[in-house]
Specification:
4 copies of one chain form a homotetramer.
Chain A: E1 2-13, H1 14-18, H2 25-31, E2 44-48, E3 58-62, H3 70-78, E4 80-89, E5 104-106, E6 109-117, H4 120-130, H5 133-136, H6 144-154, H7 161-178, E7 185-192, E8 197-203, E9 212-214, H8 217-223, H9 228-231, E10 238-241, E11 252-254, E12 259-263, E13 269-272
Antiparallel strand pairs in A: 1-4, 1-10, 2-3, 2-4, 5-6, 6-7, 7-8, 8-12, 9-10, 9-11, 12-13
Chain lengths: 278, 278, 278, 278
């Protein structure tokens, strides 16, 4: 399917996270270890929050593999951000085009996804009808991932992200069941409004794609007092990733099945996730 | 908007028609004379019927300008066809991506369009709901042109092309009127099943984009007995174009307002076009 | 040929200069007024100096027209820079590919060009032989513009920019004359190391492409006391452009024939330009 | 590195060879088994000889992976040819651009390559100087593969292909040795003029990339009397490939080290290959 990475914390050059680690996300575009597909070469995207006076994040997306994209490397080497998403895509059939690349954006919000809606092709029209008519007008692509975003927006993402995602998941599962599909939904999701970051791991089958979050930086510093990078970033700095970057012992923790985490000012949280009726 | 060209007759290398004439379609991608926009650089497409044992036409489409596309030139210089479409696009806002390029194909059928649905953004959901649910699943892009194709397919394009196009136009106009839009539809259209070719010219306002058809080849031969090209093609050979190619006196005839023509084995026809209730 | 723009001064979002002015550079990609070609749709590039700790500028280039490129708009809306170049290309035959797009970069230096070497195809090998063998290895494209950059680097660009450009021009003219070419060189050039900016206007024929520099900001403020933009930028802020942006009276001054200007801390200068023996 | 395929024989739709076999070339773009890299996603090309009245082959090349390219699939499903090349690229650093994709063409001739010149970056200028000045003007890309083609053209490819390739290889090895490079050359090559087909396997080290040729069709028919495909093609039909397509026992034979084969009307040949002084 796909691989993704979400960063929040001390502003860093994007390349610090995207290119420098061993087994970086860009390396995963050629050689993912934990994905269904080892190659994620059907487009990519990066979204970042920039200067203080710009409301919405920048989203740069392109078709073609991330590993050979020179513009991505240029941007990553010159843009510094306190909150950014990066995604590499392995299409399961929908067109390889910019409007199908993640992250998706709506106002201040960004969304990216790994997984899929089973038999999405058949359910697409029913789900489209459930999207708020005003929001429907802004959909540009043809992926299940974008549809999930617009369903969540319809169900109140901007007011209550976990609730809206739960209602989206409930709608997808109910629609899938009407088509006789046993396990309609498979997802790891990242959502942000630029201030807080939510990461979800869920599948109808209870066998969700991998998802990891990084250990608190103060704990890591005690484990690895010699690592310069850790001295340069705040305790609040956190990563959520499809599969671990690098090989730092103690650095990565699996998000449990049917759970979501919130990274926010103050204490972060990990909570249980259950789909709900819309 | 866009420019397009439809050819049917003696099999020729595509470049004979696409590149060689003065003021060719490729030249029009940089310097159209009669269009709303002089530049048509937002993608292109060519669709052709090939060897006898292949049921559906080939459709090659790409983003970027036709004028600098080397692959288009290679194909045009090596592929021979008795029936082909070519289209150059000027986007009016929808994404520049392959799935938004013309011609569109469904089975044996091809469709291309110049013009637009006024305020399509607002009407998009209503029109999508009118598309047959089975057909809806095959829509990949976000243009009004593709939507018109799928509405016409819904309304029986494969059995009765003029009737289906009339019902599509009626549906678009009725929907537009519900939104208070005075002139919802502007279109020149080409449709083919590989055997017959239909060209439509219509607009709600009665001020349609230009459309021309070529004079019968036997008549042209009498006017221009010295032209080698005319000796190499059959009497049945015919072109329909957004704007004339070359400067051959007597070669081009305007399609009248609110009309459609049929190019077919035997006598061709020119008939009146009126939108109908779906 | 092409159109370009160089900005130096108070850090601004790139879009302030690239998109917002009437008749902006992006608008010129579709509708240039003063160029040989009105359409500049064969690729584009933007190069900017970013955070203090990054030595070399970012250079983002892509094929396809600037007017429809969404990534360019995203970057322009979120990146702030005190010194940037932007270029839109109209190819005169060489391949439309990223390595042929401007600006070109070498270490801290950027270079962009409008114009051409007459019959470059014939002179290409001779000029390539004159490039320093070490530098030759870094050439990636096939344009005359990149060759001129590498010749200037060979002739000392990093120590003496005006002298190196003069020796490059002399080498091109001498080589052209050996091939019996009357007017070998036509150029407007922008060169920078991130601190200073040089703009050159020259042609063998003495009929060079247009080039303009902006009036001092303090003078403009007196002419237009009501313009908010002018209150937000320093007196040192300066633009050099192929053709004027906007319609502000008194804002633009033609660079004289066979001249070059230096924008730098302290007083700027305008000096005579003559090709020299290498 | 790369993977390639050359077909000559009974005219077939390209897809018959490119897409239909198990472990087809398109499948190898994602999952090569014998290459240094398993992913070959940095561009592709297909070249074919078409209608009788067209002198030179069509060459369609594009950046991005072959596996998701819709235009390649369209062409392959509608173009029939008696002689075609297909190539999928894994860049070892040179730019991913159309002019670096194989096959390369010169007049009637096509050339494609897997392997590389060790430290090509350092030898590039010396080799460029050895190319005939007239031919040099037609080089557009920056790969070692194109350089090898133009060196072979310089050394008489059109009169004596095996001799010219031997002299090219000799020149590369001699130049490499001057730079202290132990094993300068690694290559499998396909060359054709549309009538005959040459396949070369050689490396300075004597450990060349894999190369296979298909067994004579009459022999295969005896081994597999039930295979419909074999009844539809002539005895003369032959494939040369980087790695075997499908799993047909007895179908594939390794080209020996330091050898080249000629597929031609009449008996084919397999001969020893040794680099020669230019």
């Amino acid at each position: 399917m796909c691989r993704w990475l979400a960063y929040t914390g001390t502003p860093v050059l994007l390349e610090t996270i995207l290119y420098r680690p061993e087994h970086s996300l860009i390396d995963q575009s050629l050689h993912a270890r934990m994905g269904v597909e080892t190659t994620n070469g059907d487009g990519f995207g990066v979204g970042w929050y920039g200067p203080d006076d710009v409301e919405s994040p920048a989203v740069v997306r392109d078709v073609g593999p991330a590993w050979s994209n020179r513009n991505l490397r240029e941007i990553a080497g010159h843009v510094r951000s306190p909150m950014f998403f990066a995604h590499i895509r392995a299409s399961t059939g929908t067109a390889v085009q910019q409007t199908n690349c993640h992250p998706f954006r709506h106002g201040r919000w960004m969304w990216m996804h790994n997984g899929g809606i089973t038999d999405f092709h058949r359910m697409r029209r029913d789900l489209a009808l459930a999207v708020d008519p005003e929001l429907f007008l802004d959909m540009e692509g043809s992926t299940d991932s974008e549809m999930m975003f617009y369903l969540a927006l319809t169900f109140g993402l901007e007011e209550d992200p976990p609730g809206a995602v739960a209602r989206m998941a409930g709608m997808v599962e109910r629609t899938g069941q009407a088509y006789g599909i046993d396990f309609p939904l498979q997802m790891t999701l990242a959502v942000t409004d630029g201030a807080r970051l939510w990461g979800f791991r869920y599948s109808s089958q209870g066998e969700s794609r991998s998802l990891f979050y990084s250990t608190r930086v103060d704990t890591l510093r005690q484990l690895h007092p010699d690592l310069a990078f850790l001295r340069g970033v705040s305790d609040e700095t956190r990563l959520i990733v499809s599969e671990p970057l690098g090989d730092l012992p103690g650095a990565w923790n699996a998000v449990p099945e049917s759970s979501y985490g919130v990274v926010q000012p103050g204490d972060d949280e990990m909570l249980h996730f259950t789909p709900q009726a819309a």
